[in-house]
TrEMBL record, chain B:
InterPro entries: AAA+_ATPase, ABC_transporter-like_ATP-bd, P-loop_NTPase. The keyword ATP-binding applies. GO terms for molecular function: ATP binding; ATP hydrolysis activity. Residues 2-231 form the ABC transporter domain. PROSITE patterns: ABC_TRANSPORTER_2 (PS50893). Transmembrane segments: none annotated. SUPFAM superfamilies: P-loop containing nucleoside triphosphate hydrolases (SSF52540). This is ABC transporter ATP-binding protein. Keywords: ATP-binding, Nucleotide-binding. Pfam families: ABC_tran.
UniProtKB/TrEMBL annotation, chain C:
This is ABC transporter ATP-binding protein. The lineage of its organism: Bacteria, Pseudomonadati, Bacteroidota, Chitinophagia, Chitinophagales. Belongs to the ABC transporter superfamily. Residues 4-231 form the ABC transporter domain. The keyword Transferase does not apply. Keywords: ATP-binding, Nodulation, Nucleotide-binding, Transport. Coiled coil: none annotated. It comes from Chitinophaga silvisoli.
Length: 384, 242, 298
């Protein structure tokens, strides 16, 4: 039971209104979930798509990574280097093709193109460990295929970390160098790519289509003639898709961590916060499209052509933006997924914190605010 | 022209059309009535060769409904309230398109489309998009196009829904003219006064034909003053709808 | 006070005037019919009255509220059933009703007495999805949803279009009962025979009102004596009537032809070889009036 003073509080008209509004919102959201859950096709797109995309991209791009051929140039030839080499040899990811005797041999091996990575132990490797507790290993990777290169270097790094973990207090720093494509340009860092693609698709298309569907079936007419605020109609449409999209983000991250073994190097809360921001950007875009169109097909087409294509083209996920002509580079700046892609890449792969991505975040916030403003401006409380 | 014998269509357990048997003569105007969901649309689809019956037999213009659907399609015309014409083509373009589908030669198309436009008094509108025409004109045009290739039978699915009373009567004049030329007309309608314009009508209830006769005989046997009453007496007991 | 007042209302789409200087008033508790074919402008009038469309000229009030300025107030008090079935097909009957009750800030229990008669008929299907209901049932559900907040004015846009005569009859019986609850009802229909069931009607064509009055008064205003004639050769009869100099107007009407004329028509028809001629006076219907008004206009 509520105490008396609280009871009187709940009878204030203002409070009652808020309670009523919340109830309406809840009912509306529940209805929206019913729509989604009862439509198998939508469900399939919603949850099947990220899984399929992650798996296709993941396996298409990573299954070569097993048994990658590498060479080892062991200048130290001591206990520590031998132990590490045998660890690398034991790993299923690497296949030691042959040992080389000098730097020229490494170069030759890369040029022949049959190896992907070289590990170079400096002279006095064990000695450095014993006396300074610290040693270095050079890792050289062929970055012509940047994805494989990053994957392989991260494998090597984790093998080395494994080794040092058992050898407290020794530390070994791998010095990683990428050959041929040192900046990893155009790296199909597909998890961030798939994340921006899937969120774009789910949020923009689903929101736009679900609002336009109500226009088409005529239920929007009835809702507009009700005292329910039209703005609330839109907001309560957006909330379920925000939740569903967060589920999608989680699915993608779980899949990439546990199935594809791609670790998240940065802060997970930060990643989710940035994802929420991007989802809101997408929802606003979807609302904007729905305000401007009257048929589901048109909404779908605009979402696909107008949103998916720029995401694929301009986010840097498939094609390196740096190589594009200047006008296209400028266009790429207004594509929200480009910024989100960079943010996710920074957090997931480079393990960077907020200080490294505040600019991108600010730009996304800016785009969202502008979109919100424009779509609320053009939102009509009437039919036409 | 149309002969059916115990024609049925089942969807799972549901018998949409249950052993309907009837005949329609050449040049007859046959009204096909029934409540919503009585099975009219299903029956009409079978007769047009668009869906295969579950059992029973039927011939349309002498062609078997199972094996000769292609010939059937060549010999019938079809018009419905929902789909009639392409709204984004002009009157002339629509005539030429539909005439072309039925294999009319260019010469035929030319004379026929001129004739048709003249008969309907659409000379001024010939170059206008069909979407810009009033509904009644669209329906008249749509009917004329459905009989352009001189089919033996024309199927009309609620052709006059929502049309004003004058245009409705003009539309029926077109139907009479077609029947005078020997075209068999098979028509569904929700307007009971239109049922009176038919030579004979059948009333379907719950998948079966409950009554089939001339309007006058039906009114006599049901002691009813109007077709409305006859229909009400029969359809009131309907178990299912749609 | 009048529940709905419409003053010189006009709506123009690109090249077409859908509603052309329409004025009428509906009294509280009245069952008012807008009768006219598709494209006459009925839906546009409804949408302007339900605040969905802005008029291009003229004004209108619903329960004293202006449809442009006070749209929020009207949205609280009006009930609206659009022409096409506009409920959620993938929600069950019960879910639809509860949803609309919440949208209108009320509950089913609060206004149950109002919808009871209708709700009882669909209650056996309350767990069924709305999309799986029959045409008549959908219509009843839609009416329930439109009534759920006890609107003071109910707008029904072509509720009986495409519905078979039996369901139509049932629907009108429901409207009659609602009238007893003192709800003002404005209904549109293309079926002329439904006009008699309204308290007052407006006949409308091409965005213009042809006549507004009670059905009886509309019929009484028919200036000529109307005859029904039939013969064994109906099609020939119709052609003969059209050609005859005696005939003022003639058209098919059910099994008869309706005709207004001067002189000895029966003899003239017999001369033309028609047999089985029956000629008698017949009561004027709304449809006769509509045809008359349309022809006068043209």
């Amino acid at each position: 039971m509520l105490p008396a003073w609280m009871k009187s509080f709940t009878h204030w008209p203002a409070v009652q209104n808020v309670v009523n509004d919340m109830k309406q919102l809840y009912i509306f959201i529940r209805k929206e979930f019913a729509h989604v859950l009862r439509d198998r096709k939508t469900l399939l797109i919603l949850f099947g798509l990220p899984v399929v995309q992650i798996l296709i991209f993941g396996f298409a791009l990573t299954n070569e990574v097993r048994n990658a051929k590498i060479v080892i140039y062991d200048q130290a030839q001591d206990v520590a280097s031998q132990q590490l080499i045998s660890k690398i040899e034991a790993s299923r990811y690497f296949d030691i093709a042959y040992a080389v005797m000098d730097r020229a041999g490494i170069e030759a091996a890369f040029k022949k193109g049959d190896i992907r990575l070289a590990v170079i132990f400096p002279q006095g490797f064990n000695n450095d460990l014993l006396h300074t507790h610290h040693a270095q290993i050079q890792v050289v990777a062929d970055a012509a295929d940047p994805n494989t290169a990053t994957t392989l270097t991260s494998y090597i790094t984790s093998i080395i970390q494994d080794y040092t973990a058992a050898q407290e207090p020794y530390q070994i720093t791998p010095q990683i160098r990428f050959l041929y494509n040192p900046q990893l340009k155009g790296a199909p860092n597909f998890v961030p790519g798939v994340m921006s693609l899937v969120l774009m698709l789910v949020c923009v298309m689903m929101t736009a289509v679900s609002i336009v569907r109500e226009k088409e079936t005529g239920t929007m007419e009835v809702l507009l003639v009700s005292p329910f605020s039209p703005l609330m109609v839109i907001i309560s449409k957006a909330i379920p898709y925000l939740l569903l999209s967060l589920i999608n983000v989680t699915t993608i991250l779980l899949l990439s961590t546990f199935v594809l073994k791609l670790p998240i190097n940065g802060s997970i809360p930060l990643l989710f916060a940035e994802s929420t921001l991007f989802i809101i950007t997408c929802l606003t875009l979807g609302i904007f499209i729905s305000v401007k169109t009257n048929s589901q097909q048109v909404a779908m087409l605009i979402s696909l052509m107008g949103m998916m294509l720029p995401t694929i083209l301009f986010s840097g996920f498939m094609f390196p933006v740096e190589n594009m002509p200047l006008p296209l580079q400028l266009i790429s700046n207004i594509v929200p997924s480009k910024w989100y892609y960079n943010i996710v890449k920074a957090i997931m792969i480079k393990g960077l914190g907020f200080s490294a991505i505040w600019k991108e975040t600010l730009i996304l916030v800016g785009i969202t605010v502008i979109l919100l403003f424009v779509s609320f401006k053009s939102f009509k409380i009437r039919l036409s | 022209m149309i002969e059916t014998n115990k024609l049925s269509k089942r969807f799972g357990d549901f018998i949409a059309t249950n052993e309907i048997t009837f005949e329609v003569d050449k040049g007859e105007i046959f009204g096909f009535l029934g409540a919503n969901g009585a099975g009219k649309t299903t029956a009409m689809r079978m007769l047009c060769g668009l869906s295969t019956p579950s059992s029973g037999t039927a011939t349309i213009a002498g062609f078997d409904i199972y094996k000769q659907t292609e010939q059937i399609k060549k010999n019938i015309g079809y018009m419905s309230q929902k789909f009639s014409l392409y709204e984004d083509l002009t009157v002339t373009e629509n005539i030429r398109f539909f005439g072309g589908i039925y294999g009319l030669s260019n010469q035929q198309l030319k004379t026929k489309s001129q004739q048709l436009i003249h008969d309907l008094g659409l000379e001024k509108e010939a170059k206008k998009l069909v979407g810009a025409l009033p509904l009644g004109w669209k329906q008249k045009l749509s009917f004329s196009i459905a009989v352009l290739h001189e089919p033996k039978i024309v199927f009309l699915d609620e052709p006059t829904g929502g049309v004003d009373p004058i245009t409705r009567r003009q539309f029926w004049n077109l139907i009479y003219d077609a029947a005078d030329r020997g075209v068999t007309v098979f028509v569904t309608t929700h307007y009971m006064d239109e049922a009176e314009y038919c030579n004979r009508i059948s009333i379907m209830v719950d998948g079966r034909i409950k009554a089939l006769d001339t309007p006058r005989n039906l009114k006599n046997s049901f002691h009813a003053a109007s077709m409305d009453e006859v229909f009400y007496a029969l359809a009131r007991g309907a178990k299912r709808s749609e | 006070m009048d529940a709905v007042i419409v003053n010189h209302l006009r709506k123009v789409y690109q090249d077409k005037t859908a509603v052309d200087d329409v004025s009428f008033a509906v009294k509280k508790g009245e069952l008012f019919g807008l009768i006219g074919p598709d494209g006459a402008g009925k839906t546009s009038i409804f949408r302007m009255l339900t605040t969905l469309l802005l008029p291009d000229a003229g004004s209108a009030t619903v329960d004293g509220y202006d449809v442009v300025k006070d749209y929020k107030a009207i949205r609280n008090l009006a009930g609206y059933m659009p022409g096409k079935f506009s409920l959620y097909q993938d929600l069950t009957v019960e879910e639809n009703i509860n949803f609309f009750a919440t949208v209108f800030k009320t509950t089913v229990a609060k206004n149950y007495d109002l919808i009871k008669d209708i709700y009882i008929q669909i209650a056996p299907f309350k767990k069924r999805r709305a999309g799986k209901l029959s045409g008549g049932m959908k219509q009843k559900l839609a009416l329930c949803c439109a009534l759920i907040h006890r609107p003071s004015v109910l707008f029904l846009d072509e509720p009986t279009t495409g519905v078979d005569p039996v369901s139509r009859k049932e629907f009108w019986e429901m409207l009659r009962k609602l009238k007893e609850q003192e709800i003002t009802i404005i209904v549109s229909t293309p079926y002329m025979d439904e006009a008699d069931l309204c308290d007052r009607i407006a006949l409308i064509q091409d965005g213009k009102i042809l006549s507004i009055d009670t059905p009886n008064a509309v019929v009484a205003a028919f200036p000529d004596k109307l005859y029904a004639v039939k013969a064994d050769q109906m099609h020939r009869l119709l052609k003969a009537l059209q050609a005859s100099p005696l005939v003022k107007d003639s058209y098919a009407f059910g099994e008869y032809a309706h005709v207004t004329f001067e002189g000895d028509l029966e003899q003239e028809l017999a001369k033309q070889g028609l047999t089985g001629i029956e000629l008698q006076t017949t009561p004027v219907t709304i449809e006769d009036c509509f045809i008359k008004l349309l022809k006068e206009k043209q």
